Amino acid sequence: MSFGLDNLPYGVFSVDGGKPRVGVRLEDQVLDLAPLLGDDVFREPTLNPFMARGRGAWRATRGRVQDLLADDRGAEHLIPLDRVRLHLPIDVADYVDFYASLEHASNLGRMFRPDEEPLKPNWRHLPVGYHGRAGTVVVSGTEIRRPCGQRPSFGPSAKLDIEAEVGFVVGAGSELCRPAGAFDEHVFGVVLVNDWSARDIQAWEYVPLGPFLGKSFATSISAWVTPLDALDHARVGGREQDPAPLDYLRRNAEWGLDLALEVRLNGEVVSTPPYRDMYWTPDQMLAHMTVNGASLRTGDLYASGTVSGEDSPGSLIELTWNGARPMKSGQSFLEDGDEVTITATTPSGLSLGEVTGRILPATVR
Amino acid sequence: MSFGLDNLPYGVFSVDGGKPRVGVRLEDQVLDLAPLLGDDVFREPTLNPFMARGRGAWRATRGRVQDLLADDRGAEHLIPLDRVRLHLPIDVADYVDFYASLEHASNLGRMFRPDEEPLKPNWRHLPVGYHGRAGTVVVSGTEIRRPCGQRPSFGPSAKLDIEAEVGFVVGAGSELCRPAGAFDEHVFGVVLVNDWSARDIQAWEYVPLGPFLGKSFATSISAWVTPLDALDHARVGGREQDPAPLDYLRRNAEWGLDLALEVRLNGEVVSTPPYRDMYWTPDQMLAHMTVNGASLRTGDLYASGTVSGEDSPGSLIELTWNGARPMKSGQSFLEDGDEVTITATTPSGLSLGEVTGRILPATVR
Fold this sequence. Notes:
Largest interface: A-B, 62 and 62 residues
Number of domains of chain A: 2
Largest sheet of chain A: 8 strands, mixed
CATH class of the largest domain in chain A: Alpha Beta
Oligomer: homodimer
CATH architecture of the largest domain in chain A: Alpha-Beta Complex
Helix content of chain A: 10-25%
């Protein structure tokens, strides 16, 4: 079942303009946790205070909710999804975006730097990543205004694109200058991410300090955070790595995830990127991000980078080869009014929900 | 006077392990604002709630404090600086670092990319910038642990460096997809910044997405935030720009600042970078950062990038030309136990306080 007892993702909802609070999704309903469990942490408007309690609390809560629902206690606290409004589930602390797909990094290298080796010399030695703008992370369904900027002449982006990604939400932080613990001690759960990208703005601005305005106008995440514990059956070893990574990046457990993504443009599937084939796994990203002594905070979000398989890229710039091979619709990038929806499922059919957004025309400034 | 009635920077302090609260510095004392003004916003542990009130409130509060102090009312709420502990004054939302010095960008270009033009083609057209890690911004005085990482072999950074910068604290935010207002509507004040940098880690990791672990282990800011209103007499037109910037980057007011920085290494002045000669001014940075529709939040911090004059660079990599010309002490980068202090003054002798930090040895991991 997509949203059955084995799933139970967390989100933040409100009813009739009331105060946002924490719920769990069961099929097409939201379980109102605060009254069910008698715990005020679920009356908070984000998951952060609950997530800060750590892995023991996450497991205990999930177990209790499963028990109650299995016994049919809780029915009075179920609210139909179509009666609620969903909000950004987390207060995002720092947002980091990685670049973990070999196919994506190679494709982008070929297009942005045609005269060079597609992969930079560091790429197979560390998960390349950078910080994005936490303040413009928005919940699925938020409309996305086409950004303006230097392309290099000034105007609305003519190459507005998507990046289909998988994101990891840090629940339990770590101290500055102390080594972080295991991946599942810190990471609470998984979201789907659309890292909207204005390719023309990005191509002009990104040297030498990386993407900035080409990405910072908006990043959408799914309204439901799937707990790591729901994904045990989807765990896989992760792609073979050559050269073998340094000690601190060695995989101590299987944290690859077998997630099948689908990207829909105006309802039509345009790509089906396989997350399981990513070169760098999320435990490696966490180890890398903290190896210099950087701390983690509750609410940190880090994303995989575009999930691209060999014939199933997670961005339009790859799908249409920067406009050289338009889609059937004739278009190569996003047009005003376009709606993009990214979904993902596990091998057992568990759904990670969706991240969706529609493009609004640029504001003339 | 350095910290007289014309200065009055804001900070967060505590006494005897008590709760941190907001104060204003007068000479070598802290004025305890909450009891003086009878306003609980100053009992908060960061400046954010006060800053969120906006420019009208900032000016009114400053005027009232100046009046009270001039009339000698307030003496009972002055606490000697040596009795208080200073804390990180703001809850940092997003942290952006620019690259606004022509000399710094040219110098780094020559060292990192010796076979190319020092400046990338975009540099004179937009203030190049990127997001840094907000969660590792620390207050002046915090000890800095030497980071480990790939250099590309794994180990403690052997090229630990400083970057002397001027930072701008956003007090009043702006809405997503709405144009931001004037610089002084949003920016509350100025801090000094030391953007610690591990050059060996940075050089290996930074292509193609920019600096990450080479910077994210720590960024220090001064404990005192100088209100923009205290800096009126230091305003200058800003360096001439060629080519003329695009409309949205046109300067509508003089927001260059005549600040004389001093960088001390273990007590000895090693450089005196002039902020007034920076190519891009902070109003231009704010306009650029938001032109794509990105919102500002209370607590956003953006920094100028290294302040380097022709013969007075704000980093050791420039001062020693990446080790080719060691300092008198024989060293080229930071050694364990080194203490770096950055200060700045205006033409009238007003002090912007200091940002200081001492290097702790790497933890063997």
